[in-house]
Amino acid sequence: MLCVGLLSVFVLAACGSSESEDKQADGSKEASEETNYSEAVNYTITGIEPGAGITVTTEKAIEEYETLSGWELEQSSTAAMVTELEDAIKNEEPIVVTGWNPHWMFAKFDNIKYLEDPNGIYGDVEVIKSLARKGLKEDKPNAYKLIDQFNWSVEDMEGIMYEASESGKDIAEVAKQWVKDNPEKVKAWTEGVEDVDGVSIELVSTPWDSERSSANVVAEVLRQKGFDVTITPVDVAVVFEAIANGDADATLAAWMPMTHKDFYDEFKEDFVDMGANLEGAKIGLVVPEYMDIDSIEDLQAKSK
User: Fold this and answer.
1) Burial, 113: exposed, middle or buried (Cβ in 10 Å; 0-12, 13-18, 19+)?
2) What per-residue confidence (pLDDT) applies to 34?
3) Which of 4-8, 112-116, 203-207, 257-261 has the lowest mean pLDDT?
4) Using 50, 70 and 90 to split pLDDT, how confident is the model at 149?
5) Spatial contact of 252 and 203, defined as CB atoms under 8 Å apart
6) With 60 as the cut, is the pLDDT of residue 179 above it?
7) Helix (H, G, I), strand (E, B) or coil at 228
8) Phi, psi at residue 176, to the nearest 5°?
9) Poorest-confidence range of 7-16, 64-73, 255-264, 293-302?
10) What are phi and psi of 234, to 5 degrees?
11) Which intervals of the chain form a coiled coil (predicted)?
């Protein structure tokens, strides 16, 4: 009887322990499912420089989405944003950042994702266009032809950015090596382009790694054809203004149809649109995959 009684007590205790553990597991699961990510990130989107196309678009998103009511966009620099993202991923903490492709962070971090954008504020797939000042085709036909024929992929651009970030080399140095390693692509860009002797050409660009990559690649190919090339990094609004006013010859940095739409529309009568030099670009809000949300509408407005 004693053995039976002890056995019964043991079984009951074990069952009770199992039920308790199940309840705790269920409680943990519920707590996980009920995580208020909006509160956890202090209703803040970690962004980049003021005036950037994605900064302007995110400010619109905050105005348009009810779930972003009361949120703030923390504006700093691309480097600071990526550092905060890296720290958050290392500690498996929630974070919401402004993101875009091409960018080397998508090569570095394989566990980040875009939040769905039901209102279409960030647009769908983007292209990056080349623009030229009026008269460039007549003044410097070989430069115009080479820039017009320049075309590459998201993977090409991200490869240069990632190599520069990992090696610590300047993008100009990495771009020069990329040109050396991709003769077939360069051959297509220079088809029908004659050599010149010191003709000057000024490319104007934003200071971000994506645009620095394209500007330095094209500059290197132009130099190989005998051009004297200057790359001038400026704010995105100045990029469009400089081309429209004829203060610079061309840019490879116009993100359309959404990111730079306001700037494009303001000056579109005063420059030549040479078409896309890269397809498949994208912008939006980005979070780590371990955050159990899929859409901007999964976030919560800040209570007043």
Assistant:
1) middle
2) 64
3) 4-8
4) very high
5) yes
6) yes
7) strand
8) -60, -40
9) 7-16
10) -145, 170
11) none
Considering the domain architecture, whether residues 133 and 206 belong to the same structural domain is answered as yes
Contacts of 229 (CB under 8 A, 6+ apart): 200, 201, 202, 203, 219, 222, 223
Give 273's strand partners: 131
Q: Find the angle CA(222)-CA(226)-CA(230) to the nearest 5 degrees.
A: 55
Spatial distance between the Cα atoms of 147 and 268, rounded to a whole number of angstroms: 19
What does the pLDDT average to over 223-232? 98
Are residues 79 and 131 both part of a single domain? no
Residue position matching structure tokens 């190919």: 221
Q: Which domain holds residue 110?
A: 38-122+285-298
Same domain for 265 and 192, yes or no, is yes
What is residue 303's predicted lDDT score, i.e. its pLDDT?
Answer: 86
Same domain assignment for residues 179 and 136: yes
49 with 75: CB under 8 angstroms?
A: yes
Same domain, 131 and 268: yes
DSSP code string of 240-296 = HHHHHHTSSSEEEEEEETTTTHHHHHHHGGGEEEEEEEEEEEEEEEEEETTSS--BG
Identify the pLDDT of residue 216. 98
Instruction: Answer yes or no: do 107 and 217 share one domain.
Output: no
Distance CA 138, CA 160 (A): 32
Does residue 291 contact residue 94 with C-beta atoms inside 8 Å?
Answer: yes
Identify the CA nearest to 172 among candidates 199, 205, 126: 205
CATH at residue 71: 3.40.190.100
Residue 6 lies in a domain: no
Residue with tokens 């302007």: 56
Does residue 257 share a domain with residue 238? Answer: yes
For residues 196-203, give the mean pLDDT: 98
* Total number of domains in the chain: 2
